[in-house]
TrEMBL record:
Signal peptide: none annotated. It is found in: Nucleus. It comes from Sula dactylatra. Residues 72-235 form the EVE domain. This is Thymocyte nuclear protein 1. Residues 10-28, 56-66 have a biased composition (Basic and acidic residues).
Length: 242
């Protein structure tokens, strides 16, 4: 029996001041706690030195060649805390994923065209960061992989679902989803504040996180990562938190 529709357009959480927000409102139109996160001050610490050390290691591994900007990795936002949307709790934490049969579930409820297109670009076996969003302390908690490529999202046809779309037709569905499977927890929780500190430093010195979509398009619930972005963020799990 499939899990109730829990993974929503996580970046598109309606502002709590707008309880009557439309179901299919886009992420660009609906602010959420991510907007507050954007203005949070990064923690103290020498992010530049971390980037330079990482760069030196990567150059020795790759002969100093810069990676081409292609997307083979992803960041998926999900809400670990209960929140009702049209009477349905949209909470879905990493523990909820781990509790699923074969630790696998469908990633439904995305109602933003750019996020949907990213879903459709995902390939079998590609990995993604599982990101807890719209919560007290957002950040990366785990790694998942794509185990089924894009197919029609059934929730768009379910009138009882908060993300029902009356304009979508079964012969030409608007919205897609993929199946994801738990791979492993990250060695430690990697908070948004720490990633942001590196992003700000990299904007100044040309590091790999300078254009990370988590900060340039922060409301998108599905985000692509370049190889360099993924590798650098993954390297943070080996460091002691600031």
């Amino acid at each position: 029996m499939p899990w109730p529709s829990r993974k929503r357009d996580k970046g598109a959480v309606a502002d709590k001041k707008e309880p009557d927000a439309k179901v299919a409102k886009t992420e660009e139109e609906t602010p959420d706690k991510e907007e507050e996160e954007k203005s949070a001050k990064p923690p103290p610490g020498s992010s530049k030195s971390g980037w330079k050390n990482w760069k030196k290691t990567k150059e020795s591994d790759s002969g100093g060649e810069e990676s081409k900007i292609t997307y083979r990795h992803w960041l998926l936002k999900s809400e670990p805390e209960s929140r009702l949307e049209k009477g349905v709790d949209v909470k879905f934490s990493i523990d909820d994923l781990k509790a699923q049969p074969n630790q696998t579930t469908f990633w439904d409820g995305v109602r933003n065209y750019q996020a949907r297109n990213f879903l459709r670009a995902m390939k079998l076996g590609q990995q993604a960061f599982f990101y807890h969003s719209n919560c007290k302390e957002p950040g990366i908690v785990a790694i998942v992989k794509i185990v089924k490529e894009a197919y029609p999202d059934h929730t768009q046809f379910d009138q009882k679902d908060p993300h029902y779309d009356s304009s979508s037709r079964k012969e030409n569905p608007k919205w897609s989803m993929v199946d994801v499977q738990f791979v492993r927890m990250t060695k430690r929780f990697i908070p948004l504040s720490e990633i942001k500190a590196h992003h700000l430093a990299h904007k100044a010195d040309g590091g790999p996180l300078k254009n990370m979509m988590l900060f340039t398009r922060q409301r998108l619930s599905i985000q692509p990562l370049t190889q360099e972005e993924f590798d650098f963020v993954l390297s943070l799990e080996e460091e002691k938190p600031h």
